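Figure 6 in text form: structure in, sequence out.
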């Protein structure tokens, strides 16, 4: 692993490359929100409907290292339907959190709406991890195992503002989004993306798969004045790039 920016360095051990990773203070009134995504060189975030295959093994470890800093991790229900949501940390990183006096696993959320929730996925069996299933108003609540709490939004499509308010009331100070593109679009529309961790895989697809952030229904509030970010760091492993950007008040 090489660090290209800032303070260039070569031949770093993977975990050492993120040894100084820390989050800025959250915005007033809500948790800090990070977004972790991988895309192909031509900007596609899905390969056969999944992110799997767009990058290599280093990206998976980076994902886990980002999770260490966050109180909660979340994915849209579409990801769960397409494959599963592997939200746990491995034993070494869980121990790192515990040694710092934090819960060994971040709280995991699946953000649904009115659609079917496939309760046969492995995510529902992660008994050592607190889990929240978020549903839209009027959705039929599935039978879930003990340890999975169901939250019902006041609207048919859970809104980021509402969800972040609920999490703040529960003492969650940071939330890491891990897709998919439609969920990402909802948080961008709500101006609730503070950090972006973008893995650029060295692959070309040429398909009509969704990008990192799907088009915002009704038009983007940033169409005329794009959301400005600040580059925080760039790492390289082989032919893949790992970039960190900061947005919002904390971008100053």
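Output sequence:
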């Amino acid at each position: 692993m090489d660090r290209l920016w800032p303070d260039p360095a070569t031949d770093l051990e993977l975990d050492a490359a993120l040894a100084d990773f820390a989050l800025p203070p959250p915005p007033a009134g809500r948790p800090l929100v990070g977004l972790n995504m991988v895309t192909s060189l031509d900007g596609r975030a899905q390969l056969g409907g999944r992110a799997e295959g767009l990058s290599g093994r280093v990206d998976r470890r980076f994902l886990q290292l980002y999770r260490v800093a966050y109180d909660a991790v979340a994915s849209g229900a579409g990801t769960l339907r397409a494959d599963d949501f592997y939200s746990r940390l491995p034993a070494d990183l869980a121990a790192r959190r515990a040694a710092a006096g934090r819960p060994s696993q971040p709280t995991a959320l699946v953000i649904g709406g009115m659609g079917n929730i496939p309760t046969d996925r492995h995510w529902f069996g992660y008994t050592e991890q607190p889990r929240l299933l978020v549903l839209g108003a009027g959705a039929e609540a599935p039978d879930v195992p003990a340890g999975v709490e169901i939250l019902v939004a006041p609207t048919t499509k859970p809104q980021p503002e509402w969800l972040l308010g609920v999490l703040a009331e529960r003492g969650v100070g940071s939330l890491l989004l891990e897709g998919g593109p439609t969920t990402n679009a909802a948080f961008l529309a709500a101006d609730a993306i503070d950090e972006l961790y973008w893995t650029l895989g060295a692959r070309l697809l040429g398909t009509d798969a969704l990008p990192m952030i799907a088009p915002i229904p009704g038009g983007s509030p940033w169409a005329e004045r794009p959301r400005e970010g600040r580059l925080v760091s760039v790492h390289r492993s082989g032919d893949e790039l790992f970039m960190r950007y900061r947005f919002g008040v904390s971008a100053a």
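Caption detail: The longest strand covers residues 229-237.
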